[in-house]
Amino acid sequence: MQQASKCVQRSLNLSWQYALAPYAALHERAIMCRLMKLHATIIGKCLLVTGSVYQRGRLSMSVYLDNSATTRVRDEVLEAMQPYLTDKWGNPSSIHRLGRQARAAIEAARQQIADLIGAQPAEIHFTPAGTYSNNVALLGRARFVEENKLGRHLITSCIEHSSGLGPSKHLAARGWKVTYLHVDKEGFVDLDELRASLSDETSMISLMYANNEVGTVQPIEEIARIAQERNIFYHTDAVQAAGKIKLDVTKLPVQTMSLSGHKFHAPKGIGILYIRKDAPILPIIFGGGQEKGVFPGTENLASIVGIGKAAELAAQNLEENSKKLRAIQEVMIARLTREECVKLTGAKNLDKRIPGHVSVIVHGTVGEQLVNDADFKGICISSVSACSSSGVDPSHVLSCIGFPREEVMGSARITAGCFNTLEECEKAADVLAQLFVKRAAKNTVAAV
To answer: Is 242 within 8 Å of 314 (Cβ atoms)?
Structure first.
């Protein structure tokens, strides 16, 4: 125990010795990122040496507040999946008994997903992930456009998820004109700019439903109406909205919409692409005829059953869960923003924000410091600025909104889920507020 304590203290001294001022040069911040990684590695090795007793002694609580990154699989979901890993494991394309059981399970899950978003079962397609769904929607639509010699103009925004920005950049490299809409200081797209950007060559609009970094929910119905008026294909990434916000494609004229199971308590590695009946889109990979060619290959049976069950539970508990997450959100925001060094990012009107989502900037800090400080206290949060092997990658979302680089570097995201309680989140908010203030003060002193 004493050996581990000395080991951790040495690593802390190493990191704090190189704590950076808020306006430090970029190469110094890159060094800090590497030091923070080294710090975490040293602590991890020390804890492995001494076992979990030391860790339990140091952690004052254990609270998971990174639900926008991923969610815990619900027990009911695991229970539903289990038979399809052990007893009912047939190939859904086979016509024997095991195959028929598997096919029936897939179609039942398809109905459960359809019920969650108000779709027809035939419009639901299973994919490996939300990232894949976004790529299929954008590149599949692009293939149709190119083969039919339509206008090659895509309108999107500068705050899309990387799985939306990646295909957009790929299309630009292929000669497409890509318009990136600006956003205001809360992350809302400019609808006047959207209208002004439309032309006879516009064949696709791709704007996300809700932002993963700042939690802002776009005026999605108005965007869809603008697209519908001009008969323009509209895709939306609803990965962060599913299970927290009511989705109804009967009232939302989108052609395609992406979901991801692990964001609403299904396992990782399973996503959804909603494709409206007769939407003009073509496959981008080829093989078998599974999922109508959208994702050819033998289906991920157990995970499909899991996402179906998760969708059923999300639909049943949507209103209750959203109210609880809103209450947690209000408490977290009120407590954190009492501190002068903390500033809320994203929509201030919580009716226009993902329930349970809190994102802040802590002046004079580096996001990785905040995450490590919280982790040492047993609280899991995330930073939307990330260390990379080459240095620091600032949040493209916060940069697009217009925050200066030194503020972007001090970003943190705290996101609650259905397993969190109001009581534990109140305590966590107090701990986080104290950590943020301490970290900001420590970096200020180091800069003098």
So the answer is: yes
